[in-house]
Amino acid sequence: MSKIVTFGEVLMRLSTPGFSRFEQARQLDVTYAGGEANVASALAYWGHHTAHVTRFPDSPIGRSAAQYLHFHGVDISNIIYGGPRMAVYFLETGAALRASQIVYDRVNSSLATIDPSELNWDEILKDANWFHWAGITPALSQGAADACLAGIEAARRKEITVSGDIFYRANLWKYGKKPSDVLPALTAGTDIVIANRENIKEIFGIDGNDFIESCVNLKKAFPQVSRVVDTKRTSISATHNLLRAYLWNGTSVLETPDIDINPIVDRVGGGDAFIAGLIHGLISFNDEQKALEFGVAASALKHTIEGDALISTVAEVEAIRQGETSGRIRR
């Protein structure tokens, strides 16, 4: 199978038990998560060689986070250690009319304080077929943004496919740069962009009358881009959503039917599962429509699993793609 390298911050996730509010909780459940690492772990369960690149504190917490990735089948040989602390996020899971809440605590984390020279991208990307990044990581610091750009540039030199999820967290950009200052250079070296009309306009100042025109105009500005992908979530309640996806391939837009997800167990990581499914589909199938449907099915399945990681087999995702959503017991 292909070797897929991902780069980004991994956080300690502290979540309230069940559907408890922060004010009610007297203990918190611990796991580890990060958007790009979630992509790597899902792909590892489907038989791909995945390697995640990040920086952890040289402490029992940092080593615990690395072992978590290793447990999920991710190659941790390119993780480096240093810096002051582990990034953390707190999660309160919503229900019915009450939305989930996330509180981040990631200032001065180990990855935020990285020196880009600590990473030898030519060695890291040896024998790789795919490199994936996301817009949250360059939001952390100039060092993290420069490290991400160096990874993309190395992938370009090696003619490795690059995918980038340019969705970002506006409140994370606190080092004097805006997304529009940083993300264009990263997108310039990216083949497959996960984006919608709104953030294409916000980040690049590129507009269009519809998704197709926005994609066409994005391609004019960034010729390397060959596909643009977006998902549409219809939220009926915090525990009941509909999910579909779109893919522009340079000539037309493909679209999936909605998948009805009810009840949702844990929606965090659903977008990462979609990206993992799309990458698997594009690598494994000679069929963009099937690849897109596999991505949506993977995302839907993730909504039924606690934690950020999608733990599944290809067969389970494929069954959902084919419409087997009854949830009947398998014997």
From TrEMBL:
One of its GO terms (molecular function) is kinase activity. InterPro entries: Carb_kinase_PfkB-like (IPR052700), PfkB_dom (IPR011611), Ribokinase-like (IPR029056). Belongs to the carbohydrate kinase PfkB family. This is 2-dehydro-3-deoxygluconokinase. Keywords: Kinase, Transferase. Residues 1-307 form the Carbohydrate kinase PfkB domain. It comes from the Bacteria.
